[in-house]
Structures are given as structure tokens and as C-alpha cells.
Amino acid sequence: MISFPVDNRTRNRLESNPNRFIEDVIKKFVRTSPFNQLEAFGNDLIFETPLIGFADGNDALFTDYKQVVHKQHFTPREILTKYLAEKLKEESPEIKSVNVISFVLPINRKTKTSNAREMEGPSLRWNNTRWQGQNFIIELSRHLVFVLEQFGVHALAPELSPCYKIFTPPDNLASSWSQRHMAYAAGLGTFSLNDGFITPKGMAMRCGSVVTDLALTPSPRPYEHHLANCLFYATGKCGACIRRCPGDALSEKGHDKARCLHILFDKQKPWMEGAHGPGYMGLYAGCGLCQTGVPCESRIPVSGSQKR
Question: What's the confidence (pLDDT) of residue 92?
Fold first, then answer.
């Protein structure tokens, strides 16, 4: 764990502008952490400068996620209450404030370019980014929780919590804490035809979140609806992600999760077996073809989709 100074000057920064303080903590960690490096590619950065947003944990939108995502999806208050009840050994801990800190990590431009050239499976850079990038997200989440706790603030990364679950078929393929839905609530982007998440820095990204009882100012959601940034839904004339999919998991009707899983674990298995060179890692190759070589790879392609 990276050390963090807890002195009067730092405490004053947190108390005077907690949103800005958290933004600075996250951006510095992304900029300086050795975990944010692709070891096989000259220690290039895995992720570029992050986007950061905040959401009120009592927003009614989080209750809607029980229908939109999964019936067992946690609200921020539910998971923070559960965490504090176990930590403080209190049945009903008092929680005055609940907020979500969401961060979007844009993937390195070189990595996006390498994957955009591929047609059947991911580039090595993309594969390494998928798994080393996940390790980085874990370290960043732990660091942010650690920093907040140094000031007596309660915080947790729900995806690292023992109560986090992934639901698989025959149940709906989903999780009890969706990072993309947290990012949507925090004003960082909207969804797309392929179930990706289009941010001002594009869809080729990863994201994470932390829940805290620190009082924060929610970020505005600068879009009219949850599909506002997708060119296909705006004009009906895109569908570039459909053409990029190597296994017909995408159509104008949307994303077929079962077919997508087949691509990841069966069709692209040769990548993990060395058929396309050494160095591939993780549980599966990573794909990501529909996130690269498309108009929304690095930007919002819809003109005027953001509220003015």
C-alpha cells in the first residue's frame, strides 16, 4: 500500500473541497503507480488520465437498478450498511451520508490502435491490458479506501467485498454491483448497442467505484437518457460494433450475452493456447474488438448528445 500523509494541510484540503481532493488522489495514483504499467511493452501506461464522477447514494436511480440490472443488485446504502454492520458489530449503524465515487480509465491509445487492427481476436496489448488493468483497478480501489479511512471516513470497494456476486445462466448474466451503471449515475457516460459504455473519452475503457459516507457533491448527468451517446440509437446508421464482432453476438437488436461468452471462452481459446504468439494471460483472451475501430472508441460520436 502506498503511504499517504495525514497532516493538517492534507486534512484541510479534504474538508474544504472533498470532490477535488478525491480527484487529485485518483489522478496521482493513475499517473505514478507502478501497477499502471504494461510490463511486456516497455512499461507503457495501461490507462491514460481518468474521468471521475460522483453520485448521491440515495438517488432513486439505484433502486431502479434492481429491475434494470438484477433483483439482487445492491444500492449504495444497502452495501455500505452491510459493510459497517459487520465492521462495527452494530445491527443498524447510523449512516448520515452515502455517496458513490466512480472512475473511468481510458485505455492507452497504442493499445486501442493495436486492437483495432485485429479481426478475430484481441491483440497481445489488449489482452495484457484486460488482466493487468484489472489488477490496477483493484489497487486503485484499495488505495482510495485506504486514504479515506486515514481521515476517519468509512469506505469500501463493493466489487472487492465478500458479498459481491456474479449471476450466471440460467439466471440473468449480471452482477450485484455494476461498475458501468455506477458510472452512468455519476454522469460519466451512457450505454451503447453492444452494452458498452460511451464516455467523453470513448468506450475503450475500464471503470471502478468506491462507496463512502463522506459528504460529496453529486456530478450532473449531462445527457437526456441512457442511450444518448450511441450513434446507432441517435441516427440508426452506425452499427460499426456489429461488423467488428467476430462471432455474431451483436445485431440491431443488441447484445447476445450467450454468444459473447462463446466467443470469449471457445472461439478465442486458441489465443490462450499460444496459436497467436506467447504472452497471453488471464481467464480468457479479452476480445474488445467491438470497442475499437469504431466511431465511439475514443469519443462521443453523437453531435449534441450532451446537455448544454
Answer: 79
**Residue matched to cell numbers 476480445:** 287
pLDDT for 36 equals: 98
Distances (CA, A) of 1 to 4, 140, 141, 144: 9, 10, 11, 10
- Measured in whole angstroms, the distance separating CA 177 from the mean position of its chain's CA atoms is 11
CB atoms within 10 A of CB 304: 9
Give strand pairing partners of 101: 54, 210
- The per-residue pLDDT of the chain, averaged, comes to 95
Strand partners, 100: 55, 211
Task: Give the H or E element holding residue 14.
Answer: helix 8-16
pLDDT band at residue 1 under the 50/70/90 scheme = low
Domain ranges (residues) in the chain: 8-291
Angle between helix axes 109-116 and 124-150 (nearest 10 degrees) is 150
The three cell numbers locating residue 262: 462463446
Which of the four pLDDT bands, split at 50, 70 and 90, describes residue 304? low
Q: What is the mean pLDDT of residues 278-304?
A: 95
Is the alpha carbon torsion for 189, 193, 194, 195 positive or negative? positive
Query: Is 30 within 8 Å of 39 (Cβ atoms)?
Result: no
Contact between 131 and 286 (Cβ < 8 Å): yes
Residue with cell 455517496: 99
CA 187, 125, 263 angle in degrees (round to 5)?
80
Stated pTM of the model: 0.95
